[in-house]
Structures are given as C-alpha cells and as structure tokens.
Amino acid sequence: MEEFISEFLQAVPNTFIPLFVAIDIFAVLPIFMALTDEMSQKQKKDVIRQSILTALAVGVVFIAVGEAIFRVLGITADDFKVAGGLVLLVFAVLEITRHDRQRIKVTGTTGVVPIGVPLIVGPAVLTTTLVLVDHYGVLPTIISLMLNLVLVWIAFKGARRIVKFLGKGGIVAISKVMALLLAAIAVMMMRLGLQNIIKGQ
To answer: What does the alpha-carbon distance between residue 77 and residue 197 come to, in Å, rounded to a whole number?
Structure first.
C-alpha cells in the first residue's frame, strides 16, 4: 500500500505538468475574455461551469474510449507515442508561429464549444492524456486533469486581474514558452516510442 501511494505521488507531478502545458491557460485566457466581455456576471458563471464540466467529461470519456479503440485497431502504445508526439509537435509549432486567432462567434453554448472543446480540451490535451495513461496509469492522469481544470476555473474567475497584471505582451510570451515546452514533450514522446519499437524488433 505504501509503495502504491509513493508511486502515485510521484506520478501526479509527471502527469500534471504535461497537461498544464498542453492546456496552455495563458493562450485560452484572452479568448475567454473576448468571448465573455459583454456578458453579465451570471452568464459568465454559467459559461465557466459549462466549459469546465464539458472539458472534464470529454477528457474522461476519451481516456476510456481511447484505450478500447487501441485494442480494436491493434495500435500499440508506442505507435501512439510516435504519432501523438508528431501531432503535438505540429500544434506546438503552429502555436509558436501564430500571430492572431480567428474571431469566434458567441452563442448560447459558448461554454461547451468552443471554450470547453477545443480551447481547454483540444487535440493536444487528448493526445497527451492517452500517452500519460499508458505511461503512468488512469488514476494519476485523471487526477492531474481535474487539478488542471481547477486551475482553469480559478484563472477564468480572475481573468481580468491576471491579464491586467501580466499585460498582453506577458500573456503572449508565456504562451509561446508553453508552446516550446509542448514541443519538447512531443519530441520526448516520439523518442520513447521509437526506442521501444526498435527494442521490440
């Protein structure tokens, strides 16, 4: 039991950090503020609740279904590490080189789409969760996802103060650093996957 707890406590930081980088709250915050700028406080609360619950539901369901899809299609974890790492690398490069974002239309389900999915939980986060599940297990990954969503909720609640404190330039700079870290994680995933595939031959 003590060994399990020790391994679990070691796994949580290792799963938390890649998900934190993949979510990149500093890139999501300005978009959230733009979409909710003309909303009342009650509407903003509803959007925040919608987005967090949607992100959690999609993340957990994808973890459960993703493993089943692997088994059906005969995809190994190492195959997914290489493919997933490549996808994450593409997303990271696009994030680093992107100068602006397309204006998103505000609707009654803004908290679900686009904030919940794909801004909070997008392809980068979904890819990361599946790789982390294979590497560290389901429980640490889900706990880390939930902890990250708590941080997102706190950030959304204090969005105006955070942006005012960091400034637009600071937000952009931090977002680019997050993208670089995501690129590094992507390369690590591909390296581990390729090493395991070569060893297995």
So the answer is: 10
